[in-house]
């Protein structure tokens, strides 16, 4: 990480953090003075417990690999990371003691749950912590949380962990909460993996406003998910002119290659992955719809002879 490899002043570090805050759109409510106040420990950090269900850890890696943000500062100045499966040193009974303390705490220790992956309802002995199932822990932890961030598509809509052929009987956080009558505010940050910019914005928004940002009917921040990939696509003019790619690598709109941009709401063409280096469409591949509520589709890849395309094929 660049932050660790160079000798820089603290103010320069703060300026870099603020640059990242501006990049994710949070500068409208979080000023540089607020940032300095956080650095001076005059802003109370947000208590966060990050829980893994059935996941590949991709969303955690996505956040930890973010290039423009000194993630250590985000995790230490703005949050009090109570526990994270990958980066915490706590093991064994230390973890269950943390969970129990949160369950039996009063409102004086407000905390936000970040949940990654699915909750294995159909195969409860997976993802057990301290001989207790993930379903059992979440039934007690989720109702007491001030809010929950569903990190990634698996936690938001089920995603890969809930696709046909899997045997764990996963439930997304939203479906789990609905089925168990849990009313904790939940924000969905779908994407495979979740974009760290979405997470940082949501975290800072909650820290500043004590509530979640404006959400759509699924619970996604409208700021990032109000428009489809198709609306923002770099190949939109080709679509309008009827220039369609017939093979991967061809110029033109990729809709006949199974592109899911028309049915996927995400800001991918504005904020790409890996410090906005690239996304599927910029690389010449159809959008696979990883932020969509029906991901993964059985016919989403570049199989243009598949008659089940979402858009009727033109003669």
Written overview of the protein:
By secondary structure, the chain is an alpha/beta fold. Helix content is 32%, strand content 10%. It contains 13 helices and 7 strands. The strands form 2 sheets. It has a 5-stranded parallel beta sheet. 41% of the residues are buried. Mean pLDDT is 84; it is low at 1-5 and 306-315.
Can you describe this structure in just a few lines?
With 315 residues, the chain is α/β, with parallel strands linked by helices.
Low-confidence stretches: 1-5, 306-315
- Could you report the average pLDDT, rounded to the nearest whole number? 84
Integer-rounded radius of gyration: 21 Å
How much β-strand is present in the residues?
Answer: 5-15%
H/E topology pattern: HHHEHHEHEEHEHEHEHHHH
- Please give the largest β-sheet: 5 strands, parallel
Structural class: alpha/beta
Assign an overall shape: globular
Helix fraction? 25-40%
Would you report the number of β strands? 7
Strand order of the largest sheet: 2-1-3-5-7
* Count of runs of 4 or more consecutive helical residues: 13
Measure the end-to-end span. Answer: 52 Å
